[in-house]
Amino acid sequence: MKNSQKGFAIPIIIAVVALLMVGGGAYIYTNNKVEAPANIVDITSNVSTTTPDNIVGGDKDAHGCIGSAGYSWCEMKNKCLRVWEEKCEVDSAIGNATSSDTSDSQLDVQKTVTPIQVQNLSTTDCKTDIVCFVNSISKNILTKVEYTVTVDIFGMMKQTSTNYMEIKKYDGDNLIFYIKNVENSAIYSSSTPQEVITSGQEVYKALKGRDGTCNPKKEDLLTLLSNWEIGSFSTNDWDGKKCEGLYFEPILTNY
């Protein structure tokens, strides 16, 4: 019987010792746990005095950008942005258009000016060379000439006329042709009646200084001038060439 009780008492003793050990450890843990909050409270109390509202937005820079939220000022785009969401740069085409050395007027010019030059804007002075005048027209070059021609009229007289001619503009297949009479004279045969001579002189006087403008097709004018070069003239030379002005108006005389 004693042996059985002794055998039973040993586990109890072991259990009591275990309880004491656990209790002692719990006591040490409890003591440590009680002392720790004194330090923790001091730290957390300082943190708790600053609310999230005070952190976000409390560090705005001169441009109003919130650094704590990841925003910074972008001079190129003139706004606050997050660099990982939007790059602080502009497209090269836009950057060139908005650079400080490019004004609005320069941009307007770039938009409206076409690189295609349809004609030479300078005027070639052919002096008295009709061949130069014709060649310039064939190349769509603005040109001018003072052309003098002498015509034998029915063997009765030789009439000399000087006209100033100029190409003012090219307009597709057409052009603007300007002509002005400069001087006229005539040599009459001995058999020419006096009234014819007097009438001719009146016509020359009235014609001097008269001018006009035509809008013919370029090919038609080139044909007309080529005919004049070989001395071929006609009263129908200006038909269908859309001419207007005193040069093309009839002259009335007393004869």
Structural account:
This protein has 255 residues and is an alpha+beta fold. The chain has three domains: 1-49; 67-112, no CATH class; 121-248, no CATH class. It is 40% helix and 24% strand. The protein has seven helices and eight strands, in the order H-H-E-E-H-H-E-H-E-E-E-H-E-H-E. The protein has helices spanning 2-48, 52-55, 92-98, 104-112, 130-138, 194-207, 218-229; strands at residues 72-74, 79-81, 120-125, 141-153, 157-171, 174-188, 211-214, 243-244. The strands form two sheets. A six-stranded mixed β-sheet has the order 3-4-5-6-7-8. Helix 5 runs antiparallel to helix 7 (218-229). It is rod-shaped and about 115 Å long. The relative contact order is 0.07. Mean pLDDT is 76; it is low at 1-53 and 113-118.
Task: State the end-to-end distance.
Answer: 181 Å
Largest sheet: 6 strands, mixed
Q: For the largest sheet, list the strands in their spatial order.
A: 3-4-5-6-7-8
**Average of the residue pLDDT scores:** 76
H/I helix tally: 7
Q: H/E element string?
A: HHEEHHEHEEEHEHE
Number of strands: 8
TL;DR?
This protein has seven helices and eight strands; from the N terminus they run ααββααβαβββαβαβ. Strand 4 (141-153) and strand 5 form a beta hairpin.
Write the layout of secondary structure elements.
Layout: H1 2-48, H2 52-55, E1 72-74, E2 79-81, H3 92-98, H4 104-112, E3 120-125, H5 130-138, E4 141-153, E5 157-171, E6 174-188, H6 194-207, E7 211-214, H7 218-229, E8 243-244
